[in-house]
Amino acid sequence: MKSNDILFKMAAIVLLAVACHRATAESLTIPVGRFSLGKLDEWEAKVFAGDTRYTLVEQGGRRVLKAESRAAASGLVREIRVDLNETPFLNWSWRIENTLDGMHEQTKQGDDYPARIYVVVSGGLAFWRTRAINYVWANRLPQGFEWPNAFAGDNAMMVAVRSGDAQARQWVREKRDVRADLRRFFGDDIRYIDAVALMTDTDNSQQQAAAYYGDIFFSEK
How far is 68 from 63, CA to CA, in rounded Å? Predict the structure, then answer.
C-alpha cells in the first residue's frame, strides 16, 4: 500500500471519529416556543376571561414574547407531542415585572400568576383523565411549594418554581425534569406530553401584570 493511501485512510478515520464525537456530544432538543425567531404561528389563543395581550418584542437585546394582563385571563397553547423518554427536560427563561398582592393561591379566588408554563397530558375522549403540571412564578407561596390546582384538583399540580419580587425585572433560566415530575405527582411512568401552554392571568385579582417569556424547548439532558 502506498504511503499516500495510508495517510488518506488515517485522515478519514480521524475525521469520522471527530464527527461521531460531535454527534454524541450534542444533546437532542425539541423546540416548542421559538420566539427569538419571531415565530408565534404554532400557538393558539385560549381565552378564559378577557384577553391577555401577547406580542413579540425586543427586550434585553433579544426577541421574546411579552404578556400584559389587565384583569384578564387568556393563554397560548401549542399542541406538540414530546417523547419524554428521549427529551425529558423542559427548558425556558422568563422575567416578570411584578407579582400580585393579597393572593391566597390555594383558592380559586387566588389562582392568578404573573407567569406560568404548563405541560398537558391528554386524556383523549376520557377528558377527565387529562393531567397537567403548572410551573408558576408564585406571588407569595414559597419557592418549591407544590399543591393541587384549586379548579382541577389532583389532575393539575402546581409548582412554585419562583416566588415573590426578589428576582422581578431579571431574566431567570429554568429546567425541569418533566418525566420525573409526572411520575412523582401521578404515580405513572408517562412517556408523552401532548401540549405546552403559557399564561399571564389576573382575572381573579382584577390587577395588572406583565411578563416576558424566552424560547421554550425540551432537551435530552
Answer: 16
